[in-house]
Design goal:
The complex is a heterotrimer of chains A (299), B (208) and C (668).
Chain A: H1 5-36, H2 46-56, E1 60-61, H3 66-86, H4 90-110, H5 114-145, H6 150-155, H7 170-183, H8 211-233, H9 241-264, H10 270-295
Chain B: E1 9-14, H1 20-27, E2 41-42, E3 51-55, E4 58-59, H2 63-72, E5 78-82, H3 83-88, E6 98-100, E7 110-112, H4 119-142, H5 150-158, H6 192-207
Parallel strand pairs in B: 1-2, 1-3, 3-5, 5-7
Antiparallel strand pairs in B: 4-6
Chain C: H1 2-20, H2 24-48, E1 59-61, H3 68-92, H4 96-115, E2 126-128, H5 130-160, H6 168-187, H7 191-209, H8 215-246, H9 251-264, H10 269-285, H11 293-297, H12 303-310, H13 315-324, H14 340-360, H15 365-386, H16 389-420, H17 431-434, H18 436-450, H19 455-470, H20 473-498, H21 513-548, H22 562-582, E3 589-590, E4 605-607, E5 613-615, H23 624-627, H24 629-663
Antiparallel strand pairs in C: 1-2, 4-5
Classes of the chains: A mainly alpha (299), B alpha/beta (208), C mainly alpha (668).
């Protein structure tokens, strides 16, 4: 397989710029949230200050194992995003993401702390809730572009001339936006780990992590968020530069939509999270896919 | 200036407060006062927190809880006693079940008297705690990093994770609210003696 | 040729020898030697028949035509004897269905043999291809490892259940007979031979499940027997139908007939009906819904039995047969709805998703494993049902990975059970502290079951891709939901195992030496296959699939692309190496857990109200209300029965009309 120059550029950009973009987005998120609540809000660079501060804190842990899992979490999130921006197979990327997230869950479980374990279980629940839709997104993109390879999807290889994947995948796009709320840990689905204080499970999965370890988790989330927005981008490219620009713009819009949703909703129960996301997966994602099959005469 | 002053995360604990001060602490988070401007977040988790805000006096029931929360905060950390009850015991000082102010169980860096302490005073107290944090950070850099072996870890577990032979840095001086804020004192003002007691009781606990 | 006979004979001889050895001292060495000999011979056979050769061992043997008649009569005699045994036991335990089913199929077969079967000339009784050799190696290595494990395990089992008589001679006799029969199944080309071995495995599992002779064991063993006899009946009917119309009993001839009909674009309804019956037999044996209850019931047996049934034998015989028929399955168009491919695919897919759901609600480790087996077999069955080369590739990969991993997990749970006194996942709290080595083994096994980049996930990936390609959109949906749930139920178990609970005594030095030997052997196998699968995919499975399906020119399209496989191997190596380098190497200060400030300092109790210390007890999440086991089984029963009814009425009416057409001399 010849390695395309774009793939290498994509990978290097992600590895270097990924956390900065992710951190900046997080800062903007906090600022926008504050403004929506009529507050002034922290500086845009606040997330970076937070991480720098956490790095300076005294290193403590509850056992000798949990830091290892967090390190693996970060490594595998970076691998996931790296594979994504390198243009590798979409299914491979999704499966690696599952592995990465599982490391965080195991890290929380390994502490044997009540709050962390509840957070870990809810995190697993969320994984179960969103995974079908993520897989269907990959299948839908494959149906329209004829390839699971992100490099091919971005190049618009299998598309009808002038078309973009989104025009066949409106339902799947809606479904993906729905579960994106869960992936960004936003209300109403911030079950496992909320950014807001005073809640029943303290800090969920991250309860027993502190200092440097917590900073690593934060950085991993930045990497992850950038990669998740890259997923939104995949609905748009057809090989032309202007669709790429539109795609990037929509990805940003999607992010702000999530911030908006976060502030507009209270947190829901887990039953609602599971049932609603599966219902959306079926009514939008699966229906879209089935329609696509029959329209294309593939069944 | 270390980054600790740019991102002070707080944990808030209600000793035996009448909730007046608690409401004022939470008022700081509201749009009116918006402490997140300074990067201040209310975490609710001692392991993430830098500043420990305590309202109300300490009683027999919660003394161990306060100690444990304090111990579970990683260094550098600062404690702010919010309201006159937390400062000295306030009107409850002589109650049968009241130990007194927060400094009877853990070292306190900032006292914010008042009944209830006003949000401006609380914010000012937190900002002053940042100075204490910064100094502790510098002191921490000079000290070699503590590590634990597996065997020590087990021992630590039994001792509720108290640091090995390294008591918290003794307080240089008490930082009181500034003159620019008008503060009304209802209870006894903390004096040097009680501060000394806190040191003794704090370090005595470490060596036990 | 001799090796083939040896392969079946060695376990047979060992089994007979074990029947007469009643002392522990002598039994151990005999089992070790027998297991080693069987394993070595299985590998020798595979290598000698050219498992690594690209051309492929697709060979057929007559299997001694001169003695075929005699062999046939011997088999018939044994079958009749077995039917009598079942009949007597059925009367003894008042099981009417067993009393009916066993003699009925025996009569049909004998009637057929004496009338039509006599005149059918079978050219090749034995058929060997890559797939059969893979199965031989799986049975030869995993099966015998389980037997070795059972030596120590059964010693404990006997001392835990001192009230019953020592019937271990019977147990080990059955185990080895089972292996012999499995070798027979995978090497047969003659359907009569295969049926013979098929029935022996049914009977062996019946006796193994009922080993303890408790009321529950007897009930469950009869359930297994009756369900498998139903499959056996379908098998006999398939033989009669095929022999009666085409005067042949060979699988390769059946495949030729079907393929040529497919090539002409003219479906052969007789072949369709035969394939459907055989697949039905496979489905019962592979414990697909609605027949999954027998495999769950089989949990009453000692753990080595479960391990054997789940990993290398019994259920694998079911999927083996279905995968063998895969070229005749598949869903090309709307007309194939109600065809065998449709039936197999849908039953497999439904079983996968429903069994995965049901697994969420289980806290008994063995039941979780059982539901996971049923689900994974569902996936294999669905992969075979899609009838594409990719699907078969995925199915064989799944069979290999599943056999090794599931055996490892069952045996680990068995060892844990004997040492912590429970097979409940909730009691595995802090296993990491109590039995660190065993916990690590279990963690590796669980990770290999569902986590990228290990084996099972590679197959799942390939399966998903092949369903998308072949247009199986409904199955795609089932896989998508099923695999999401899979992450949940394995994840929470994994969490229990990795949790580090304070103050746990290490008790793992009580484990038998042979148990460690077998478990470590499994771990080595898991790691080897996880790291070397591109190798055996390229040199064994891909050649097989290209031979199996005619007219494949592009061999690379069969499997996942090489790049992806290499990425997976690199990731797997990373995951395996990282803990060795970094796990537990912290230099941080260790502090107690956060429990709202009320931790008593030992991480195990917190200060409750009224000054009372309350122990911390963490429990997992089972979601009974969402994924209720009963509900899933009921849904599975209804949906799969509808599919069976539709498929069989289609196939049956079509086959009957064709039959009439032939009988009527070519006119309707």
């Amino acid at each position: 397989m010849p390695v395309s120059i774009y793939a290498v550029i994509g990978l290097v950009c992600y590895l270097i710029a990924g956390p900065f973009v992710g951190g900046l987005l997080s800062g903007i998120d906090r600022k926008v949230t504050a403004r929506m609540q009529g507050r002034f809000g922290p500086p845009i660079m606040q997330p970076f200050y937070d991480v720098r501060k956490l790095m300076e804190k005294e290193p403590v842990t509850v056992n000798s194992g949990q830091d290892f899992y967090v390190m693996c979490f970060l490594i595998f999130i970076i691998i996931t995003g790296g594979l994504f921006f390198f243009g590798e197979n979409l299914l491979l990327v999704i499966f690696t993401l599952t592995t990465a997230n599982l490391f965080l869950v195991i890290g929380a479980y390994s502490s044997n702390s009540p709050y962390a374990q509840i957070g870990a279980e809810r995190e697993l629940l969320q994984m179960m809730a969103y995974e079908p839709m993520v897989l269907l997104t990959a299948v839908g993109l494959y149906m329209t572009t004829g390839s699971f390879r992100i490099g091919d999807i971005v190049a618009g290889v299998g598309l009808d001339s002038g078309g973009i994947p989104l025009q066949y995948l409106v339902g799947i796009f809606i479904g993906y936006l729905f579960i994106l709320t869960m992936k960004f840990r936003k209300s109403p689905f911030d079950l496992s780990l909320s950014h807001h204080a005073h809640q029943e499970l303290v800090k969920g999965v991250t309860t027993e992590f502190s200092g440097r370890t917590l900073a690593l988790i934060e950085i991993a989330h930045w990497y992850e968020n950038v990669f998740l927005l890259g997923f939104v981008f995949l609905f748009f490219p057809n090989g032309t530069w202007y669709m790429a620009v539109i795609g990037a713009a929509v990805a940003l819009l999607a992010f702000f939509l999530e911030v908006f949703i976060d502030n507009a909703f209270a947190r829901m129960k887990w039953q609602f999270a599971l049932k609603s996301s599966w219902l959306v997966t079926i009514t939008f994602g699966a229906a879209n896919l089935i329609l696509l099959y029959y329209l294309r005469g593939l069944m | 200036m270390s980054y600790i002053t740019k991102s002070p995360w707080i944990i808030h604990y209600d000793g035996s407060s009448c909730n007046g001060c608690d409401i004022e602490v939470l008022a700081c988070l509201t749009p009116m006062y918006d402490v997140e401007r300074f990067g201040i977040i209310n975490t609710g988790n001692p392991k993430h927190a830098d500043i420990f805000l305590i309202t109300g006096s300490i009683n027999e029931q919660n003394v161990s809880v306060v100690k444990q929360i304090y111990e579970q905060m990683p260094e550098p950390k600062a404690v702010a006693a919010i309201g006159i009850c937390a400062t000295s015991g306030g009107v409850f000082k002589d109650c049968y079940n009241i130990m007194g102010g927060v400094d009877t169980v853990i070292p306190v860096d900032v006292y914010v008297p008042g009944c209830a302490a006003r949000p401006e005073a609380i914010i000012d107290g937190v900002v002053r705690a940042l100075g204490a944090l910064d100094e502790k950070k510098k002191a921490m850099e000079k000290r070699p990093h503590e590590t634990t072996t597996a065997a020590e870890a087990v021992a630590n577990l039994d001792r509720m994770g108290l640091p090995d032979g390294a008591p918290p840095e003794p307080l240089e001086e008490l930082v009181l609210p500034g003159d620019d804020i008008e503060v009304k004192y209802f209870g006894t003002q903390p004096d040097d003696e009680s501060a000394d007691d806190s040191k003794n009781s704090g370090s005595g606990k470490e060596e036990a | 040729m001799e090796t083939i006979i040896f392969l079946v004979l060695i376990p047979l001889v060992i089994a007979l020898a074990l029947l007469f050895i009643r002392s522990d001292v002598a039994r151990g060495p005999v089992i070790f030697i027998g297991a080693a000999a069987t394993a070595v011979f299985s590998v020798i056979l595979a290598v000698r028949q050219g498992i690594w050769s690209d051309v492929g061992p697709n060979m057929l043997w007559s299997g001694g035509t001169e003695s075929a008649e005699a062999t046939g009569y011997v088999m018939m005699g044994i079958e009749a004897a077995l039917a009598v045994v079942i009949f007597i036991l059925g009367i003894k335990y008042k099981k009417v269905l067993a009393c009916i089913l066993a003699p009925v199929q025996c009569f049909i077969l004998i009637w057929f043999e004496l009338h039509a079967g006599h005149s059918i000339e079978v050219k090749n009784n034995i058929g060997i291809d890559h797939f059969a050799l893979i199965m031989v190696i799986i049975i030869g290595i995993i099966g015998t490892l389980i037997c070795v494990y059972a030596v120590g395990y059964m010693k404990d089992f006997q001392s835990h259940h001192p009230e019953g008589p020592d019937r271990r001679w019977w147990f080990f006799f059955l185990m080895f007979i089972f292996l012999a029969a499995m070798f027979g199944i995978v090497l047969s080309n003659n359907l009569i031979y295969m049926y013979f071995f098929w029935e022996i495995t049914t009977l062996c599992s019946f006796f193994l499940i009922g080993y303890t002779k408790t009321e529950e064991a007897v009930r469950n063993s009869f359930r297994a027997l009756i369900m498998n006899l139903l499959g056996g009946l379908a098998f006999v009917l398939a033989i009669v139908l095929l022999g009666g119309t085409y005067a042949t009993l060979e699988i390769d001839r059946l495949l030729e007939l079907g393929s040529s009909a497919k090539a002409l674009g003219q479906p052969d309804y007789i072949v369709n009906a035969v394939v459907m019956l055989l697949c039905f037999a496979g489905i019962t044996k592979a414990a697909q819904m609605p027949f999954n209850s027998w495999l769950l019931g089989a949990m009453v047996a000692p753990t080595p039995t479960s391990a054997l049934l789940h990993s290398s034998t019994m259920v694998k015989a079911g999927v083996f047969l279905i995968v063998k028929l895969s070229p005749l399955l598949g869903v090309q168009g709307i007309m194939d709805i109600g065809g065998p491919g449709f039936m197999v695919m849908m039953v497999g897919g439904l079983t996968f998703v429903l069994a995965s759901f049901a697994a969420v609600t289980q806290s008994n480790a063995k039941r979780v494993l059982a539901y996971s087996t049923i689900a994974n077999l569902g996936l294999i069955v669905a992969c075979a049902g899609i009838g594409t080369p990719e699907g078969v590739w995925a199915a064989i990969m799944l069979i290999i990975f599943h056999a090794v991993t599931k055996s490892l997990l069952f045996l680990s749970v068995g060892t844990a059970e004997h040492n912590i006194g429970s097979r409940d996942i909730e009691d595995m709290d802090g296993l990491f502290g109590r039995m660190p080595r065993l916990a690590v083994y279990m963690i590796i096994g669980i990770a290999a079951m569902f986590l990228a980049p290990f084996g099972m996930l590679i197959s799942k990936w390939a399966a998903l891709q092949s369903f998308v390609d072949a247009g199986g959109v409904w199955v795609v949906l089932m896989i998508v939901f099923g695999s999401a749930v899979t992450v949940f139920y394995w994840g929470k178990w994994l969490g229990k195992l990795t949790a580090i609970v304070a103050n746990r005594q290490n008790i793992q030095d009580k484990v038998h030496g042979e148990e460690w030997f077998v478990l470590t052997g499994h771990i080595v196998l898991v790691i080897i296959i996880s790291l070397s699968f591109p190798l055996f995919s390229g040199s064994v499975i891909v050649p097989f699939v290209t031979h199996f399906f005619d007219g494949i020119t592009d061999a690379t399209a069969v499997a996942l692309s090489g790049d992806n496989m290499i990425i997976m191997v690199v990731l797997a190596a990373t995951i395996l190496v990282l803990p060795l380098l970094f796990y537990g190497r912290t230099r941080k200060r260790v502090v107690p857990l956060y429990m709202g400030g009320a931790n008593e300092g030992d991480n195990l109790t917190f200060a409750g109200s009224m000054g009372k210390d309350i122990p911390v007890s963490l429990r997992n999440w089972y979601m009974e209300g969402v994924f209720g086991e009963k509900l899933m089984n009921r849904v599975g029963l209804v949906t799969t029965c509808v599919i069976f009814a539709v498929s069989f009425s289609f196939a049956g009416s079509l086959a009957i009309s064709v039959f009439r057409y032939i009988q009527g001399g070519g006119t309707f």
